[in-house]
Amino acid sequence: xxxxxxxxxxxxxxxxxxxxxxxxxxxxxxxxxxxxxxxxxxxxxxxxxxxxxxxxxxxxxxxxxxxxxxxxxxxxxxxxxxxxxxxxxxxxxxxxxxxxxxxxxxxxxxxxxxxxxxxxxxxxxxxxxxxxxxxxxxxxxxxxxxxxxxxxxxxxxxxxxxxxxxxxxxxxxxxxxxxxxxxxxxxxxxxxxxxxxxxxxxxxxxxxxxxxxxxxxxxxxxxxxxxxxxxxxxxxxxxxxxxxxxxxxxxxxxxxxxxxxxxxxxxxxxxxxxxxxxxxxxxxxxxxxxxxxxxxxxxxxxxxxxxxxxxxxxxxxxxxxxxxxxxxxxxxxxxxxxxxxxxxxxxxxxxxxx
Amino acid sequence: xxxxxxxxxxxxxxxxxxxxxxxxxxxxxxxxxxxxxxxxxxxxxxxxxxxxxxxxxxxxxxxxxxxxxxxxxxxxxxxxxxxxxxxxxxxxxxxxxxxxxxxxxxxxxxxxxxxxxxxxxxxxxxxxxxxxxxxxxxxxxxxxxxxxxxxxxxxxxxxxxxxxxxxxxxxxxxxxxxxxxxxxxxxxxxxxxxxxxxxxxxxxxxxxxxxxxxxxxxxxxxxxxxxxxxxxxxxxxxxxxxxxxxxxxxxxxxxxxxxxxxxxxxxxxxxxxxxxxxxxxxxxxxxxxxxxxxxxxxxxxxxxxxxxxxxxxxxxxxxxxxxxxxxxxxxxxxxxxxxxxxxxxxxxxxxxxx
Lengths: 354, 354
Prior knowledge:
The first copy, chain A, has helices spanning about 15-25, 40-45, 70-80, 95-100, 145-160, 170-190, 200, 205-210, 220-230, 230-250, 255-270, 300-310, 340-345, and strands spanning about 10, 30-35, 60-65, 85, 110-115, 135-140, 160-165, 285-295, 315-320, 325-335, 350-354. Chain A is α/β, with parallel strands linked by helices.
C-alpha cells in the first residue's frame, strides 16, 4: 500500500488548497505552497498551511486553482515533476480534457473532488478540519496508474474525508444532478422574486427559504462550474424543459390533474431518495414540534430537556414565524424515542405537537 | 369596530378547520362543527374544537373544505345564513369565481388564507396555537362589506395570526411566486433523482436537501392547489421556460459566461429578498460553525454554552456529514455578538470556525 510521506506541493492557496495544507500539517507532512498571487500564498503560510520558499521534490501535487486553469497547471506539473498529480475541481472532465491537449502521459494524474466548504473563500477561511467527515470523490481515468490512485486515496483519508470512487463521466453526471441542477432550479425560482412587491414577500414561508437558499452562492464561481459541466447539464435541463412544457400544457386544460399529479409524484419519489443524516438512506424519523419563545437561553433549555429524556435528536429545523417573536423548532427523532421525548418536554412546560 | 362574539360555524374539520375551532375555544367563543364525514367532525369535537349538534345562528362561517368544493359551500352558506362567510383556501380566485356562478350577493364573503401547517393533516393534528405568529392573508373583493372584512380580521387576530391584506389577484400571484413555483421547481429538481444510481446520491450535500425538501409534500393536495392557481402560475412558468431556453443556448456556446452569469445574478438578487427570521428583511447575520459529535446531549451542551456567552442565536442549521458521526451546526448571530460567542465556545472546547 502506498504511503503519503510527502512532501506535498499545493498550487492555489484559496480555501480548498489552504485547508488541505492545514490538514496535512496536522500529520506533520511537509507542504509547499504556490500561488500566482503572492499575497494568497503568504496568508496561507501565516495561518500554518505550509511554506512558500522551500526546495522540494514533491511526492504529490494538489492543483487547487480556479476551474479555467486547472488543466494547464496539471500538465505543467506533470512535465516539471515525477509526482502524482491531483486536483480539486468540482467538474472532472474539463481538467482531463484540457490537460490531455497539452501533454501525452497522464498516468500520474488522478482527479479529485473534495466536496466541502463552498460558501466561504480565500486562504484565511482555511480550516484543518474542513474535510472531516466530508465526501471526497476520486475519479481515476483510463490511464491512471493504480499506485497514483492509491496515493490520492491516502490524501483524502489524511484530510479526514470518506472517499467515493466514480468514473469521470459518472462523477460529472452525479454532480450535475445533486449539485448543479438544484442550484440552477434554485436560481430560477429566486429570480422570479427580484421584482416581487413587498406585500408578496410577506407571504413567504420556510418552503421558499429552503428552495432559494443556495441561489445566493457566488454567481461567478457557479458560472464557471456550470459551463464546465455543460454536457451533463444540457441533458438534464432538456428533460426539465420538457417537463415544464408538459406542465404548461396541462395547466391550460380543464383536466390538468393527472399530468400534474404524475410530475409531482415523481418529485416525491426523488425527494425521498436524498440521503439524510450522515449519508444514510432516508430513515423513518418522527418530527416533534416545539414552540419556542425567541429569548436567549430557550434553545439551550429545550435541548437540555430533550437530552434528559434520553432521545437523540437526529435532525432539527427552525421555522420562522413572521411578525411574532416565536419560532417553531422541529426535532426529528427515531420512532422509539418519541413518546418519552414528548412526555418529558410537556412536563417541563413546553408547547409540544406531533 | 366589529366584535367577534360568535357563534362560529366551521364547515370542514380537517387540520385547518379544527385548529381554528381550538383557537376560538381558547377565547370561549361557541363553535359549531360540520363535516361531510361524520367521523372527522366527531374527532374534532373529541379534541375540543367545538360541538357537532348545536342549533346556532352563526355570526361567522369558516369554510375549510378541500379546494374543489370551497366555492359551492360558500354559496350554500350565504344562502342559508345571514352570517359573514370566510374560507381557508390557499388560492383565492377560484372560490370567488365558483361562488359567483352560484349566487349573486357576495358582499358577506371575504376570502382568507391562513398560512400554517401544511405538512400534517386531519382533525387529530389540530392545534389551538397553529396560527400563533403565522401569516393570515385576507383578500376582500370588490363587493365585500367593510364590516365583514373587519370581522374576518378579528378572526385572524383571535387565532393569534398577523394579517396581510391583498386583492384576490395580488394574493394569487404572490403565492404563485413564494409558494407554488418554488414547490414546482423543487419537484422538477427532485424528479431527476428518481433514476439516479446510488453512487450519484452519495455525492449529495445540504444544497440538494434544501432544494428538494418541499417536493415531498402531498402530490394530490398540490395538484389541486397548482390547478386552482393556473392563471398566475402559467405566466411565471413561461418566464422560467424562457430562461431555461436561454440557459440551454448559452451552454451550447463557447462563451456561455455572460448569459449564465446574468441568470445566476438574478438568482442572487431574488434570494436575498426572501425574508428571514420573523418576517424581517434579510438582516446581516454572521455564521459561526461548530463541529458537533453526534452523541446525546451535545446539542444541549452547545446551546447552553452559547446562551452563557450572551449571544442570541438568531438562526441555525445542521449540516450532515455523510459517513462520519459528526455534524456541523451553523449558528447565525448578529455581528456584535460574534467575538464573544466564539471566545466562550472555544474556551469550552468546541471546534469553532467562521
